[in-house]
Design brief:
CATH superfamily: Jann2411-like domain
Bound molecules: zinc ion
Strand order of the largest sheet: 1-2
CATH architecture: Orthogonal Bundle
Structural class: mainly alpha
Shape: globular
Number of domains: 1
Distance between the termini: 19 Å
Helix content: 40-55%
Largest sheet: 2 strands, antiparallel
Radius of gyration: 18 Å
CATH class: Mainly Alpha
CATH topology: Jann2411-like fold
Order of helices and strands: HHHHEEHEEH
């Protein structure tokens, strides 16, 4: 099993990146209860593997695709569809309705009963998406041209292009190298 890679710099974007590549994925962290438990632990929102998990997984995968369809166009300066925005809003509103404020150091945070249910993780994802939509910085959104992972570019110069230089960045470099030198096509 490969390790969870977190490159999004926002929970909602890492959630969109739970498939390893688009449009064809070889890895899906939302495919089974065991995988989602591993992924959730890695992002610091542990979920219990209780019987309800199996039923919530399809909802989770739907939300993931919605989050992707909202932020991918935004990464290119295009508008997402109103229907997809509405879906994010619906999940966010549902979460807010169930949440309460609890003190967290100098500020407060949202907290839910049964914090270790997958449903709560989805509400956290929707809250993260709502925060990104309302506060940005949307001009710092990136869409890796190789695997279509989404990320917030937090680099100083704002010129990050790849999800990660070690995977997609270097793969592209060698591909361009062979294209430019007419040597041979890179085989994977
Ligand atoms: Zn990539």
């Amino acid at each position: 099993m490969t390790d969870v890679e977190l490159v999004g710099n926002a929970l909602c974007l890492d959630f969109a990146n739970t498939v390893n590549a688009r449009p064809v994925a070889r890895r899906d962290w939302l495919a089974s209860p065991a995988e989602v438990v591993t992924w959730a632990r890695a992002v610091g929102h542990p979920v219990d593997d209780d019987p309800s998990l199996r039923f919530t997984l399809p909802v989770a995968r739907d939300l993931r695709e919605t989050v992707f369809r909202v932020f991918q166009p935004l990464a290119h300066g295009d508008a997402p569809s109103p229907d997809d925005l509405e879906l994010i809003h619906t999940v966010h509103a549902e979460g807010i309705a169930q949440a309460r404020f609890v003190e967290d150091g100098a500020t407060f945070r949202l907290s839910w009963a049964e914090p270790e249910s997958l449903r709560v993780l989805l509400w956290e994802v929707a809250t993260s998406a709502a925060g990104l939509l309302t506060r940005g910085p949307l001009h710092r959104l990136g869409d890796c041209p190789s695997c279509h992972w989404l990320f917030l570019d937090t680099s100083k110069n704002g010129r990050r292009r790849w999800c990660s230089m070690i995977t997609c960045g270097s793969r592209d470099k060698s591909r361009r190298y062979y294209a430019a030198h007419g040597d041979r096509a890179e085989t994977e």
